[in-house]
Amino acid sequence: MTDTAPPQQFASDNYSGICPQALEAITRASAAGSTPAYGDDPWTRLAEDAIRTLFGTDAAVFFVFNGTAANALTLATLCPPYCSIIATDIAHAETSERGAPEFFTGGSKVMTPPCPEGKLTPAAIKLCCRKTQSFQASTPAVVTITQPTENGLLYTAEEIKALSDTCREHGLKLHMDGARLANAVAALGCTPAAITWEVGVDALSFGGTKNGMAVGDAVVFFDRSLARGFAERAKQGGQVASKMRFLSAPWLSMIKNGAWLENARHANESARFFAQSIADVPNLRLAWAVDSNSVFLLLPEQAANTLRAQGWRFYTMFGGAARFLFGWDAKPEAIKALANAIRAAMGG
Ligand SMILES: *Cc1c(COP(=O)(O)O)cnc(C)c1O
User: Fold this and answer.
1) Is 240 close to ligand 1, i.e. is its CB under 6 Å away?
2) Buried b (16+ CB within 10 A) or exposed e, 77-95
3) For the Aromatic amino acid beta-eliminating lyase/threonine aldolase domain, which residue ranges apply (predicted)?
4) Is any atom of ligand 1 closer than 6 Å to the C-beta of 294?
5) Where would a tag sit more exposed on the chain, N or C end, judged by fewer CB atoms within 10 A?
6) CB atoms within 10 A of CB 24
7) 306 CB near ligand 1 (under 6 Å)
8) Which pLDDT value is given to residue 348?
9) Which of 222, 256, 290 is the last residue of a domain?
């Protein structure tokens, strides 16, 4: 360690604290005193309405503690135990949930067809369907895509439509892991509807934690009939908060005052600023385009070791790319300090 510790870490957007708007909402909901439990409270009702208004459709909305539960319980609701889930091989649901989707479905398999750049394609879905035509195989029931992807890329509305068309042709449901959906909406400059139900997404895990909340992701079923059994599964899985207002009040507040989008814009701009700050470092290449709030660098091992010895934290993922991820609280001076440290470590 050097004597100057990194001023801020960019290992993940969940290193951040609670954004002021979310924290104030919790404080205000608490100051209101005694209120009915398990979501039978005004904040939860209004937060559900705010999400329906945000998407411009009459969806079924639920709040759970985290994204793993949102994904696993939603996929379990859409996939019988004797069927399979199609995902990319870098999908959070495949790599980072300790088998929760398989566990909560009670027997499904996750199929991971080859996918260029970490994005699912219609051809990949068709391949999975072709491979499982036998009665003895776990035929696919649901496709899950992540927007933005785990490597920071975006699906365009047209790409999602093409995937959902393929799903319809094969009788599959389409789930979106939107742990960072706000970043996708901010980057594409579209409405939330334009990249979800309007292009055939059936159900969404809508991330709040990485957007600036303390805890609490939303699950949105755009077709209410598909939500059958979700509430019961969530309770069985220990994901129904008794003091639900502390999960829902920040959602209500951040949608009403626009903080959800402001936070995402800031995070995306921070990633772009970082990428620009290191653009001229010799021999340093990006692993993927900077579409959202992450930057993946093909950092030589020696430079990575130097940075780690200086106290910088980052994950090396997907075959060796160093990931830097920016949240609502990313500070420009700290981004510059990281860029300078990388430049020095690269000998430039
Ligand atoms: C962070 C994340 C989740 C949710 O993770 P939890 O730690 O369970 O909240 C889900 N999907 C993706 C792509 C993520 O990055």
Assistant:
1) no
2) bbbeeebbbbbbebbbbbb
3) 9-296
4) no
5) N
6) 16
7) no
8) 72
9) 256
With contact defined as beta carbons under 8 Å apart, do 101 and 85 qualify?
Answer: yes
On whether both 211 and 320 belong to a single domain, the answer is no
CATH code assigned at 285: 3.90.1150.10
Low-confidence ranges of the chain (pLDDT < 50): 1
How many domains does one find in the chain? 2
Q: Residue 265: inside a domain, yes or no?
A: yes
pLDDT for 3 equals 56
Ligand 1 pocket residue status of 152, Cβ below 6 Å: no
pTM (2 decimals)?
0.98
In a domain, 15, yes or no: no
Beta bridge partners of 144: 175
Residue 237 lies in a domain: yes
Domain that residue 204 falls in: 20-256
| Domain end call among 256, 277, 299 | 256
* Residue 177 alpha carbon, nearest atom of ligand 1: 11
Q: What distance in Å separates the CA atoms of residue 219 and residue 200, rounded to the nearest whole number?
A: 16
What CATH number corresponds to the domain at position 50?
3.40.640.10
* Best residue among 75, 85, 92, 292 to mutate for probing ligand 1, ranked by most atoms within 8 Å of CB: 92
Count H helices and E strands in the chain, helices first: 13, 11
How far is 154 from 317, CA to CA, in rounded Å? 18
Query: Which residue's CA is the nearest one to ligand 1's atom 15?
Result: 179
Kind plus residue range of the DSSP H or E element containing 72: helix 67-78
